[in-house]
Amino acid sequence: MRVLRNMSWLFVFLLISKAVGALKEVVVAWHFGAGEIANAYVFAMAIVLWLPMLLQSVLTSVVVPVMMRTELGKRGSKELFTRELAAFTALVGMFWTGGLVAAAQLGVLPDELGYFGRSMLEQLAVVGTLAAIGAGLAVRLLAKERYGMHLIESIPALVLIPFVVLLASGVDTLLLGTVAGYCAFLGVAIFYARKHRVFALPRLGFRSDYWSPIRRGLGVMIFSQVVMSLTNVIDPWMTAELAGGDVAALGYANRVVSLLVTFGGSMVASAIFPVLSDLSAREGHARVFKHAMLWARWSFLAGLGVVFVGWFSAPHAIAFLFERGAFRSDDTQLVSAIFQCGLLQVPAYMAGIILVQALASTGHYRWIAIGAVLNVLVKLAANTVLAPHYGAAGIALGTTIMYSISLIFLFIMSRRAVRS
After folding, report:
1. 41: exposed, middle or buried (Cβ count in 10 Å: 0-12, 13-18, 19+)
2. Which CA distances in Å does 63 have to 71, 141, 205, 207, 360?
3. What backbone phi and psi angles, to 5 degrees, belong to 170?
4. Low-confidence stretches of the chain (pLDDT beneath 70)
């Protein structure tokens, strides 16, 4: 019942959030198509959000299981830890923003970004700080099984839409709307965190006793997530080197795939991770993997249903969503082909992400790190073989191969964890 209750809230919040996100993609596609500006914007945002997304993923894996436990010593109060974690995430975000601005001004960015991309990256760098602070709030809220951040994450897209539709749809408007959206996102996130008593003013230091168990898994998870998150940069990077530079087309297709994935694996994983962490602390690892295996099987079957429906409806759905304004019929054909190849990843992703949560909640971080290295190696090999022949569609197919092999590895490691 606890998991089902969490899933019901997540379903509503994610449905709204992803619908707004999809609408934003549609509006941007109408005004900018799949040309140089759209390519540069997708690439720049992927780089800006790389570290905040990495930070949230790492902290979720190591912080939530620790915060599900009882108080840790006289300095283990959650209020002190909350203040120190807030300072930590803010500092990481500011260093990232400063690094991006310095890289843009010194001209050390890759040529694939182009003129628009380098200019956009410098102006969007502040988004890195805003997103990093929001990531810290999201982790603390998840530990309390509060899922409103999934709804709040739609605010950047919600703010950007009127900027593009109602104002002059130039590059400056696109960038201003993006920054304004993330400012609004952080403001609402702080209000929501205060309401649920997980917000406190930042305090520098690592005095809380919560840091001790977190440090033991932090290094391994940072390594694994850094390695795994490289796939988010590898794809647009390799796509940009192809003839025609289909970064924007791959981005549009991935957004629709992400919309479908969210209502499967991501929704179940977010709902079940606090429960698995609680079970690990109270009843041991065997019970955790028993529940995880059950949910993984059902998620895989649900993913097969998504693939069946999505494959045959892809051309019509992509045309309905995007084919207006600067987005032409040939763009629809390209995005549909990429989407169909990317859609095949859904069953393996939905099942695999639950097994990753089970390994994280029981402290098997080393196996997660090994799996991340395996994923990147498989992804690089698949992209290298498929991209020259199939373009961006081959890169999307490479993601499917990566998640399929990853699922096999995670299943073997989970069985091994149960036996041990």
Report:
1. buried
2. 14, 11, 16, 15, 10
3. -105, 180
4. 1-4, 34-35, 69-76, 108-117, 167-169, 232, 236, 240-246, 262-266, 281, 283-284, 325-326, 420
Say which residues have a Cβ less than 8 Å from residue 219's Cβ, sequence separation at least 6: none
CB atoms within 10 A of CB 123: 19
pLDDT in tens, 301-352: 988 988 999 898 888 888 887 877 667 777 888 888 889 988 999 999 989 9
Q: What pLDDT sits at residue 71?
A: 47
Residue 170 tokens read as: 């130039």
DSSP 64-127: HHHHTS---STT--HHHHHHHHHHHHHHHHHHHHHHHHHHHHHT-S-GGGHHHHHHHHHHHTHH
Structure tokens at 394: 């081959």
Would you tell me how many other CB atoms lie within 10 Å of the CB of residue 305? Answer: 12
